[in-house]
Specification:
With 346 residues, this protein is of the alpha+beta class. The protein has four domains: 149 residues; 44 residues, no CATH class; 81 residues, no CATH class; 31 residues, no CATH class. The chain is built from nine helices and 13 strands. Strands 1, 2, 3, 4 and 5 form a five-stranded antiparallel sheet that branches. Strands 6-9-7-8 form a four-stranded mixed sheet, with no helix packed on it. A two-stranded antiparallel sheet has the order 10-11. A hairpin with a 2-residue loop joins strand 7 and strand 8. The protein is elongated, with a radius of gyration of 31 Å.
């Protein structure tokens, strides 16, 4: 029996074999059942125990997964089979008393080679669902690095998000690689905590979700958060919107004053401050966080020796002696003087 999905051979042309195998592993994870992933001498195999695929799920757009699962669009394993068939990896699925493989055939009406699943009945009635394909030409080291269930057999799935400091910038969902970012640390999200696009290679709301995560950490993690704030790390760029814990805010303030001294104030980058004690230049997101922690912002004081300030002071002292047209003319001179800068003296 052939199921023709009317998808051309070049459908999802940018998918790699690793992307496709990730989809199969994703199905095993989403099942909630015990599973096993293995890279053997010639083959890759994924077994989901005590699970048989319902014939319904062979239709595009039909999924029996919950909305909190990674793959909920009802198309993942079909596209995975298409890609692996196109790349010559001979994928096969054994489920119940069915054996499923992929092939391309010319559509009788369009004349385009379209993808089909070839489903046929076998004598054995498997209680598990098993996927396998050959890994000729696949970088198995990269596969193991991006699809962690192959190497971390007993990996606990995250309840919300796990921080992986040794994998900077990498974003995973349930141990499956999604994308590389500008984040300082790597993160492994639970599917319920993040929104993936249909290709599962881009995430929405990462910074917002991380801000909520860090805002609710115990106070003993304050030093970790402080170090990220000091780096103006994107990991905590939205932290100020969720930072409400009094104990955490107090500890972050203590760490700030411990580093910069009592009485230190924050100042935005690119702004010049004159006098008035110690001011610490911080990034804009760090400035918002420190403000939430009760650290005062430095106030800009004028440079009394700057030409525009000298003129402004003279105008203020003599304003009652000046005609209106002279005051207007002087304002123009003061505006021009603001562009003056001190020359560097070697």
């Amino acid at each position: 029996m052939l199921i023709d999905y009317n998808m051309s051979k070049d459908y999802c042309a940018d998918w790699t074999a690793i992307d496709a195998i990730r989809e199969i592993v994703q199905n095993a994870l989403d099942s909630g059942k015990d599973y096993d992933c293995d890279i053997q001498e010639q083959n890759v195999s994924v077994v989901t125990y005590n699970t048989k695929l319902n014939p319904r799920v062979f239709s595009m757009g039909v999924s029996e997964k919950s909305s909190g699962s990674i793959g909920k669009y009802g198309e993942g394993f079909k596209i995975a089979m298409l890609v692996l068939t196109r790349l010559g990896h001979d994928p096969v699925i054994y489920t119940g008393n069915y054996v499923v493989s992929g092939l391309f055939r010319e559509h009788e009406f369009t004349g385009v080679e379209t993808f089909c699943l070839d489903v046929w009945q076998a004598f054995a009635n498997e209680k598990d669902t098993q996927f396998c394909c050959n890994h000729d030409g696949i970088d198995v080291e990269d596969l193991a690095n991006k699809v962690l269930p192959f190497t971390h057999k007993d990996m606990a799935l995250p309840e919300t998000v796990d921080v992986w400091q040794d994998r900077p910038g990498e974003v995973f969902v349930n141990g499956l690689f999604v994308t590389k970012t500008d984040l300082v640390f790597g993160y492994n999200f639970a599917p319920s905590q993040i929104t993936l696009n249909r290709d599962r290679n881009m995430v929405d709301g990462v910074y917002w979700q991380l801000a909520q995560y860090y805002a609710h950490l115990h106070v003993d993690k304050a030093e970790l958060i402080f170090n990220l704030i000091e780096r103006d790390a994107p990991d905590v760029q939205d932290l100020s919107y969720f930072l409400s814990c009094k104990e955490l805010k107090a500890e972050l303030a203590r760490l700030f004053f411990n580093k910069y001294g009592d009485g230190a104030k924050i100042s935005k980058p690119g702004t010049i401050y004159f006098g008035g004690g110690s001011s610490v230049s911080v990034g804009f997101s760090a400035s918002r966080v420190y403000s939430r922690c009760g650290i005062e912002e430095a106030r800009k004081a004028p440079d009394q020796d700057a030409p525009d300030q000298v003129l402004a002071n003279w105008k203020e002292a003599n304003k009652n002696k000046l005609r209106r047209d002279v005051r207007i003319s002087l304002d123009t001179v003061i505006t021009r003087a603001k562009g003056w800068k001190k020359a560097d003296i070697l």
